[in-house]
DNA sequence: CAGTGAGCGAGCTTCCGCTTGACTT
């Protein structure tokens, strides 16, 4: 038994540290937080200065028990949880649970897992910083209050009330997506005409090459045409050539959020996929910790990286750089994400390989020299008017870091008129150019693109909302709650005009482009939109983008001992609770109602609103003598944008197509998509078939075929007990409700003779002793 | 599996941030 027990948060870290510290230390992990607020009454005694009441959750009891017994046997317990607010709190909870005195128990920290860092940490232990712990308690309690007070308000005020939730982070994330959507819906594109001209000149090998020069933009076709007109019979002469050196610097090493962004842009990974793969790499010892907001690299890592750059590319490619975090909310308890050994160029595991190589390249590039460029800007004079054309070229003089890595840019950061900078042939002042043609092309302005998972993370991080460990879970939450959907959107075709000046003649042509297409983007649902509006109306302060930043300042004051945490919470809670009570009392139910127009047939109003089962349209009102008619919106339709025509179209279902074998054949859309109903049985409609236009002639063969297939599948039915004996791809089996029960070989062979009693017995038996699952390796999707 | 759309009210849900496996199809 080692004399010392040292506790860290992560088990992979524990293994590494144990090796470094040797036999005197047993290193164990507590797997993050070991206690949390109890759920009844929020786990907070409001009338007793917000006294929190903590419990060890079920899933943490095993590890707590183990740590307790180890702590008892050790001479000394060392707390080495992460060096941030949460880590400090974990250390304090450990004291509380293990019966250690926080005033004397040794607390050490390291933000890199290297031998020198750990050895020096052990030499200078401190004790738990209670101010920092209290800042964490304030953070925890505030989040609990916001979440557990707001969510019930939604349950009361929303007709769809299952599982709804609100919180400091998730509700603002949904707001970002909701507002972006409305911005896009409200956007009216403006067009301009951009002038470009093509010339040819001889390159250094005396070969003719074509290059492009750019002119002004004109707000309309008339202006552009007038300009082209003024260029008829013009001579084009190089008026000025400027050559300027330029540099490009590499990006900082990866943090969680920049890794998620680049893996999304370069590899198309979702943020959760990135994290799963990074976790694997970390557990295998290939990379440093993957949940970090720090861009810092340890000294040992720097040496390793520069050594690798020197041996692989040469000394001139090395440039040692220290990166600073731009983000104020960063807590920097860890290093940046980097390979643990630069010598390892790749990894075995095919799933992880691309992500590892991305991390390797980014890490290398971060300590490499700037790329050196030469930019050429040539001004071209037009003899017939006073305008200039500008040709720009770029030559790479020294690759530097670009040899290994180039960061991709987000759609939103791309300027609309980015010039493509390619090579220019050598040009001299006074040179007369050989004119090919000139075009004025109509270009439309674009709205901001919808968020991807990764660009949402980027935005949240900029606002200081959420932490590296929560970015991926937050996205899962808002998707799971149905506030947001991830999907594609087809673009629409749009005409644009091009005016061409060639051989001194101006002609006009029209071309087509696709606009508005989106792939794997986040769209708000109607539920997300109405909930956001509601929360904004009644809880404007919490929905404010600056709310987290503001309370973080107060947490900092608590951490510095300048403010008592209960006072801080009270300042927040008292007015907040008043808002909550007031909202419950006065707010109307959330409906998102919008009037679309009047139904021509009945003269009644047509409205779109949220119903108990989602967004719907309705003709007439509840107060009318006649019952109103209802129809559900299609998946991609929205209350905010649906037109009267589209709404009326929805009422065309269910359609009665006519009779077959003496029964009606009707077609409609149900919970599981379009279907045909006939003789009390239902048959799904294939995707390509449109329920609005399908005919009886087309429907009958579907009914006949599907019915036959169903009959073929059915061996026996015990209607009352809802038990069926069915034929599946692996032979006969029993189905009760939604669950399937496997039959033995012998039972399968006489499946037609199985009695109700026997079927019941089989079900009971299999429920009591579920068969062992076969182990199948999960395929990455 | 294929409906529903009002209100009442039992019993339930819910937050953010630390950590990994243990689960299922």
Question: Rough shape?
Answer: globular
| Number of distinct helices | 21
Q: For the CA atoms, what is the radius of gyration?
A: 34 Å
Physical arrangement of strands within the biggest beta sheet: 10-9-14-16-17
Major β-sheet profile: 5 strands, antiparallel
Helix/strand/pairing category: alpha+beta
Tell me the span between the first and last alpha carbons.
45 Å
Number of strands: 30
Helix content bin: 25-40%
Percentage of residues in DSSP E strands: 25-35%
Show unreliable segments.
Answer: 772-781
Average pLDDT for all residues? 91
List keywords for this structure.
single chain; 781 residues; alpha+beta; 5-stranded antiparallel sheet; 4-stranded parallel sheet; 21 helices; 35% helix; globular; disordered C terminus; DNA-binding
């Amino acid at each position: 038994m080692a004399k010392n027990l040292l506790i860290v948060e992560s088990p992979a870290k524990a293994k590494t540290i144990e090796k470094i510290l040797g036999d005197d230390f047993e290193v164990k992990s507590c797997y993050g937080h070991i206690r949390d607020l109890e759920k009844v009454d929020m786990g907070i005694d409001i009338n007793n200065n917000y006294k929190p009441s903590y419990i060890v959750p079920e899933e943490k009891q095993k590890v707590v028990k183990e740590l307790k017994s180890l702590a008892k046997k050790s001479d000394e317990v060392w707390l080495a949880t992460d060096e941030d607010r949460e880590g400090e709190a974990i250390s304090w909870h450990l004291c509380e649970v293990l019966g250690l005195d926080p005033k004397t128990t040794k607390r050490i920290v390291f933000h890199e897992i290297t031998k020198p860092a750990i050895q020096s940490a052990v030499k200078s232990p401190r004790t738990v910083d209670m101010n920092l712990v209290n800042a964490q308690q304030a953070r925890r309690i505030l989040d609990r209050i916001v979440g557990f007070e707001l969510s019930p308000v939604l349950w009361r005020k929303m007709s769809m009330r299952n599982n709804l939730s609100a919180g400091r982070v998730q509700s603002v994330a949904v707001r970002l997506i909701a507002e972006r959507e409305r911005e896009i819906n409200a956007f009216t594109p403006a067009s301009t005409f951009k002038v470009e001209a093509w010339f040819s000149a001889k390159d250094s090998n005396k070969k003719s090459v074509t290059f492009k020069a750019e002119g002004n933009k004109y707000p309309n076709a008339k202006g552009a045409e007038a300009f082209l007109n003024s260029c008829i019979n013009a001579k084009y002469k190089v008026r000025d050539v400027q050559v300027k050196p330029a540099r490009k610097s590499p990006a900082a090493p990866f943090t969680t959020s920049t890794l998620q962004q680049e893996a999304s842009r370069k590899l198309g990974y979702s943020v959760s996929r990135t994290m799963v793969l990074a976790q694997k790499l970390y557990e295998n010892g290939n990379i440093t910790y993957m949940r970090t907001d720090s861009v810092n690299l340890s000294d040992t890592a720097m040496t390793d990286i520069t050594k690798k750059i020197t041996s692989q590319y040469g000394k001139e490619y090395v440039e040692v750089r220290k990166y600073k975090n731009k983000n104020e909310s960063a807590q920097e308890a860890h290093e940046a994400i980097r390979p643990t050994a630069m010598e390892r160029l790749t990894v075995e595991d095919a799933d992880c390989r691309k992500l590892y190589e991305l991390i390797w390249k980014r890490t290398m590039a971060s300590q490499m020299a700037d790329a050196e460029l030469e930019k050429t800007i040539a001004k071209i004079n037009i003899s017939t008017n006073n305008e200039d054309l500008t040709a720009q070229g770029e030559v790479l003089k020294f690759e530097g870091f670009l040899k290994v890595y180039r960061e991709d840019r987000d759609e939103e950061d791309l300027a609309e008129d980015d010039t493509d900078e390619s090579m220019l042939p050598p040009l001299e002042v006074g040179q007369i150019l050989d004119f090919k043609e000139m075009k004025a092309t109509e270009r439309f302005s674009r709205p901001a693109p919808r968020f991807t998972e990764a660009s949402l993370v980027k935005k949240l991080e900029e606002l200081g909302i959420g932490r590296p460990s929560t970015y991926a879970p937050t996205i899962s939450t808002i998707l799971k709650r149905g506030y947001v959907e991830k999907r594609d959107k087809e673009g629409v075709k749009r005409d644009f005009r091009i005016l061409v000046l060639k051989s001194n003649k101006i002609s006009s042509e029209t071309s087509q482009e696709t606009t508005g297409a989106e792939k794997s983007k986040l769209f708000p649902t109607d539920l997300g939109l109405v909930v956001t509006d509601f929360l904004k109306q009644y809880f404007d302060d919490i929905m404010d983008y600056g709310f987290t930043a503001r309370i973080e300042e107060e947490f900092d004051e608590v951490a510095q001992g300048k403010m008592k945490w209960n006072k801080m919470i009270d300042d927040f809670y008292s007015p907040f609770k008043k808002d909550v009570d007031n909202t419950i009392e006065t707010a109307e139910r959330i409906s998102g109602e919008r009037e679309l127009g009047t139904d021509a047939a009945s003269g009644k109003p047509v409205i779109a609103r949220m119903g108990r089962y989602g967004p719907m349209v309705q003709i007439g009102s509840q107060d009318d003598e006649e019952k109103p008619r209802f129809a559900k919106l299609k998946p991609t339709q929205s209350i905010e944008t649906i037109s009267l025509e589209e709404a009326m179209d929805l009422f065309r279902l269910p359609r009665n197509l006519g009779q077959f074998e003496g029964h009606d054949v009707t077609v409609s859309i149900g919970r599981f998509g379009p279907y045909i109903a006939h003789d009390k049985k239902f048959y799904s409609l294939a995707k390509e078939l449109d329920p609005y236009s399908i005919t009886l002639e087309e429907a009958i063969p579907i009914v006949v075929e599907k019915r036959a297939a169903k009959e073929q599948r059915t061996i026996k039915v015990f209607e009352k007990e809802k038990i069926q004996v069915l034929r599946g791809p692996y032979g006969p089996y029993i189905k009760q409700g939604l669950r399937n029960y496997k039959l033995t070989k012998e039972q399968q062979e006489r499946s037609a003779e199985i009695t109700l009693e026997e079927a019941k017995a089989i079900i009971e038996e299999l429920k009591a002793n579920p068969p062992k699952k076969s182990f199948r390796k999960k395929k990455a999707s």
